[in-house]
């Protein structure tokens, strides 16, 4: 009995311990939710499938974005690619420049080709030169795409000063260049190859160097102080102080053209171009009278000179035909009793059929021959004398008429 009681006490004690330690308690219904396995089932398993899909989509998106970027970079690279890599257009630019240069060299002077505000211009035709004109004249092959091309006549050194230009040493002087606008820039070529590319603002700045608009053009009055100053600068240039018989001085605000002779030989007529530099005049092109084609000749050396300042006559065409004395005209003056002695003639200058006189008393006379005989008549001014000859010949004989 005693052993039985002890056994019961031990059994009760064990039950108490098991109850206290919860060793025999069943798991609660939501134990799975607290267990790591339950969390893995809810979060990892479904979530793992979503992450893999997202990773796949992200990879595809990155790949597509990369392709788009490559296409964008490729397109951007094409737009920024130097124009010269477009060999067909590059060759066309060079061909056009070479054709224009050759035509200018062979025919330009006779046709008054010149740089007008930087572009190749035909003075006698009154228009800018185009590639189509070169094709018609046989200097450029037909079928080339020259849309938008411009022909320039400039100093290569001026172009070379701009960022992006690459002018070869053989094209630094005055010559023809071809240009075309592309993507906001102007691409240029010389007759021998590429000359670089410059931005539009630089292109306009380049052409502005050849601007020929320097104010109103007019004939300078002999009563002005500037008239005398210009003649003094001619004296300095010639290295002697002399009296001149001036036919006319024409000018704008930058350049002046003087037609004159010495008092010792009225037939030796000269023509000088002077430039005004802050009120000081300088002879920049002497002896225009020697140039058969003065428009092109002067333009080569002074491309910003406005050729409209030049007189309408060409003195080179009259070389050897101007006379200091015309016997038939003098006889007509005697015949009309305008003079009784040659000593009354202060000035005379003539051609084969026109003559102009100014006497010591200041009176003016003209004489004209129709081929058979001379007639003489008084005129009131140099302008009246000019009109007299114009009516009878259709030409400008101002070079023999003394400026009032």
From TrEMBL:
Signal sequence region: 1-24
Keywords assigned by UniProt, alphabetized: Signal
Organism: Anaerotignum faecicola
Compositional bias (Basic and acidic residues): 49-76
PROSITE patterns noted in UniProt: PROKAR_LIPOPROTEIN (PS51257)
Record region (Disordered): 29-80
Protein name, as recorded: Uncharacterized protein
